[in-house]
Automatic annotation (TrEMBL):
Gene Ontology cellular-component terms listed: cytoplasm
Protein family membership: Belongs to the IAA-amido conjugating enzyme family.
Species name: Brassica carinata
GH3 middle domain segment(s): 358-425
Cited Pfam families: GH3, GH3_C, GH3_M
GH3 C-terminal domain location: 441-560
Keywords: Ligase
Domain of life: Eukaryota
Name of the molecule in the record: Indole-3-acetic acid-amido synthetase GH3.1
GO MF annotation: an example: acid-amino acid ligase activity
Length: 590
C-alpha cells in the first residue's frame, strides 16, 4: 500500500501509518538523545528519591547528572546482592524502587553459580513492548511485503520459580510471552506467527518445539521469515527436524497428532490446524531423508526472505552453519537487550552480521559508558567513534549505575544517538547457548575433576585449555587435558575420564546445567587427552607468532583454527560425560 508522502521518514518511506508513527518516534528520540537522557534520569531520581538506596547517598533532592555521578558509585551485581536478597525474601519496603518490584528476571549471567536476579517493575513491560513495536517498522523499510505471509519463530518459555518472599523469578522472555501484552496482542498483518500461543506457552520443551515445527511445516508456503531469539535456538530447531521429521510427516499424513503431545491446549488448537495432507507428508519425507541438508530452510520454506536471529557476540560462531542450512539467506539481528534493560535496535537490520550496529534508544534507561582502560564514565551522546566502552545503566526499576558487563564499540551515530557494535561480554570464556562460563568457573571445574583423577589413579592434570565446539548440534564444551603420568604409572581409564567430564559439568554454573538438562541446548562435555609436550608446542607456536616468552600464559580457551587443529592432531583419546548433571529450577540459598 502506498503511503501518503507527508509520512516519509529520514529512515525511509514507511509501509503504513503505524510504521510512520514508530519511525517518527525513533527520529524524535535520537535527535534529542541528550535531553531525553537528562529528563529521564531526573524522573528516575525524583520518583525514587525516598528509596533506601538513594537516601544512602544524600542527593539532597538533586536530580541532575553531575550530582548523581559525583555521589553514586558504579556498582556490580555483587554490590547489590544484600538488597536483592532482602527483596527476594519478602521485604516490600522501597529498597531500590518506589514502585513495587513485580518480579525478578533471571539473567543468564551468574553470581556464585546461580542466575542473577534482576528486579523489575510492572511498567518496564511497557518499555520492552515499545521497543518491540519499533522492530517491524524498521524491517519493513528493507523487506517489502512482509504482510503477505507469516513468521516461523521458535519461541519458548522456561521454568519459573518463586522467591522465598513469593515473587516470580523467570527469564525476561518467559515473563513477556506469558504477559497479556504478548498473549492478547492485537492482530498485525506484519507480525503474524505460524506458532500458536498454546505451543509457545507450553513449558515442556519437546511438546512446544514439536508443535511449533508442525505448524511451520503445515503452513510452509506462507513463511516469509524464519527465526529464533538466538542463532543457537534456530540450529536446535533444525536438529529437531533432523531427528523427528518422520514422526512429523506421519502426523501430517494421518491428520492426527503424535501421542507424545499430551498438553490439552496444544491438542485442542492443533485439532483445528492439522488436516491429513498426503502430498505434504511425502514432500517432507523426500526433503528430509536425504543425507544432504544444505539449504534445507529454503527447500522447505521456499519463500523465506531472511533469518531473524541474533548472530552477534558469542552467537557469531554459528554464522557458517546457519549459512549452510539456509543457502546463504541474510541474517537480521534486530535488537540488543538484557534482563536489566532493553537497550536498542538495529536500524539497518539487513546489514552483514560483522557490520551490525545497535542504536541505543535514549528513552529506555539512563546510560553511561566507561572507556576501556579508563574510569570516568561519559554520557550517551559523548562517546567517540572507534572507541570501546563498558555499558552502565540506571533503570526505572532501581538499578543505579549498574555495570551490565558488555563491551561495545562506537561505529557511528543516528542523529545524536550513538550506534554500537557488540564487541564481547566481559569475562566470558565459553558459551554455547545462554550459558556463560568464566575463567574462574572453568578453573574450579577442572580442579574438582583433577581431585577425582588424583584419587582414582594418582594422575594429575598438567595443563588444560578449552574450546566451544559448535560443529555438533547442540554444541558442547571440549577440555584439552595434558596429563602428568609418571614412569610406571598407568594411564587413567576411560571410565575415570568420563566421570571427570561429569564432575566438571556438576561444578559448572546453574545456567550451564539448565542448558544441558532442561533445554538440551548444550551437549555432553568432552575431555580430549593430548600427548605429552602438546602445551609446549602451543607455547612455541604462540612465540613464533610474536608472544613474549616471559609473559606467555596458557590460554584457557582457544578458538583460533590453527591452534585447535594443532591440539586435535595431538589427541590420544576422547571421553564424553556419560550422564546429565544435576539441575532443578530451585535456587541454592546463599
Ligand atoms: P540476559 O540478561 O540473560 O538476557 O542476557 C543479556 C546479555 O545477552 C546482554 O548483556 C549481552 O551480553 C547478550 N546480548 C543480548 N542481545 C545481544 C545482541 N543483539 N548481540 C550480542 N549479544 C547480545
Amino acid at each position: 500500500m502506498a503511503v501518503d508522502s507527508s509520512l516519509s521518514s529520514p529512515l525511509g518511506p514507511p509501509a503504513c501509518e503505524k510504521d510512520a508513527k514508530a519511525l517518527r518516534f525513533i527520529e524524535e528520540m535520537t535527535r534529542n538523545a541528550d535531553t531525553v537522557q537528562e529528563n529521564l534520569l531526573a524522573e528516575i531520581l525524583r520518583r525514587n528519591a525516598e528509596t533506601e538506596y538513594l537516601r544512602r547517598f544524600n542527593l539532597g533532592g538533586a536530580t541532575d547528572r553531575d550530582t548523581f555521578k559525583s555521589k553514586l558509585p558504579i556498582i556490580t551485581y555483587e554490590d547489590l546482592q544484600p538488597e536483592i536478597q532482602r527483596i527476594a525474601d519478602g521485604d516490600r519496603s522501597p529498597i531500590l524502587s518506589a514502585h513495587p518490584i513485580s518480579e525478578f528476571l533471571t539473567s543468564s549471567g551468574t553470581s556464585a553459580g546461580e542466575r542473577k536476579l534482576m528486579p523489575t517493575i510492572q511498567e518496564e513491560l511497557d518499555r520492552r513492548q515499545l521497543l518491540y513495536s519499533l522492530l517491524m517498522p524498521v524491517m519493513n523499510l528493507y523487506v517489502p511485503g512482509l504482510d503477505k505471509g507469516k513468521g516461523l519463530y521458535f519461541l519458548f518459555v522456561k521454568s519459573e520459580t518463586k522467591t522465598p518472599g513469593g515473587l516470580p523469578a523467570r527469564p525476561v522472555l518467559t515473563s513477556y510471552y506469558k504477559s497479556d501484552k504478548f498473549r492478547s496482542r492485537p492482530y498485525d498483518p506484519y507480525n503474524v506467527y505460524t506458532s500458536p500461543n498454546e505451543a509457545i506457552l507450553c513449558a515442556d520443551s519437546f511438546q512446544s518445539m514439536y508443535s511449533q515445527m508442525l505448524c511451520g511445516l503445515l503452513d510452509r508456503l506462507s513463511v516469509l521469515r524464519v527465526g529464533a531469539v538466538f542463532a543457537s535456538g534456530l540450529l536446535r530447531a533444525i536438529r529437531f527436524l533432523q531427528l523427528h521429521w518422520s514422526r512429523l510427516a506421519n502426523d501430517i499424513e494421518s491428520g492426527s497428532l503424535d501421542s507424545e503431545i499430551t498438553d490439552p491446549s496444544i491438542r485442542q488448537c492443533m485439532s483445528d490446524i492439522l488436516k491429513p495432507d498426503q502430498h505434504l507428508a511425502e514432500f517432507i519425507r523426500q526433503e528430509c531423508q536425504t543425507e544432504n541438508w544444505e539449504g534445507i530452510i529454503t527447500r522447505i520454506w521456499p519463500n523465506t526472505k531472511y533469518l531473524d536471529v541474533i548472530v552477534t557476540g558469542a552467537m557469531a560462531q554459528y554464522i557458517p552453519t546457519l549459512e549452510y542450512y539456509s543457502g546463504g539467506l541474510p541474517m537480521a539481528c534486530t535488537m540488543y537487550a538484557s534482563s536489566e534493560c532493553y537497550f536498542g535496535l538495529n536500524l539497518n537490520p539487513m546489514s552483514k552480521p560483522s557490520e551490525v550496529s545497535y542504536t541505543i534508544m535514549p528513552n529506555m534507561a539512563y546510560f553511561e559508558f566507561i572507556p576501556l582502560g579508563g574510569s570516568k564514565a561519559v554520557e550517551l551522546v559523548d562517546v567517540k567513534i572507534g572507541k570501546e566502552y563498558e555499558l552502565v545503566v540506571t533503570t526505572y526499576a532501581g538499578l543505579c549505575r549498574y555495570r551490565v558487563g558488555d563491551i561495545l564499540r562506537v561505529t557511528g551515530f543516528h542523529n545524536s544517538a550513538p550506534q554500537f557494535h557488540f564487541v564481547r561480554r566481559k569475562n566470558v570464556l565459553l558459551s554455547i547457548d545462554s550459558d556463560k562460563t568464566d575463567e574462574s568457573e572453568l578453573q574450579k571445574a577442572v580442579e574438582n575433576a583433577s581431585k577425582l583423577l588424583l584419587k582414582e589413579c594418582g594422575t594429575r592434570v598438567a595443563e588444560y585449555t578449552s574450546y566451544a565446539d559448535t560443529s555438533t548440534i547442540p554444541g558442547h564444551y571440549v577440555l584439552y587435558w595434558e596429563l602428568l603420568v609418571r614412569d610406571g604409572e598407568r594411564q587413567p581409564s576411560h571410565d575415570t575420564l568420563t566421570r571427570c567430564c561429569l564432575e566438571m559439568e556438576e561444578s559448572l554454573n546453574s545456567v550451564y546445567r539448565q542448558c544441558r538438562v532442561a533445554d538440551n541446548s548444550v551437549g555432553p562435555l568432552e575431555i580430549r587427552v593430548v600427548r605429552n609436550g602438546t602445551f609446549e608446542e602451543l607455547m612455541d607456536y604462540a612465540i613464533s607468532r610474536g608472544a613474549s616468552i616471559n609473559q606467555y600464559k596458557v590460554p584457557r580457551c582457544v578458538n583460533f583454527t590453527p591452534i585447535v587443529e594443532l591440539l586435535d592432531s595431538r589427541v590420544v583419546s576422547a571421553h564424553f560425560s556419560p550422564a546429565l548433571p544435576h539441575w532443578t529450577p530451585e535456587r541454592r540459598r546463599r
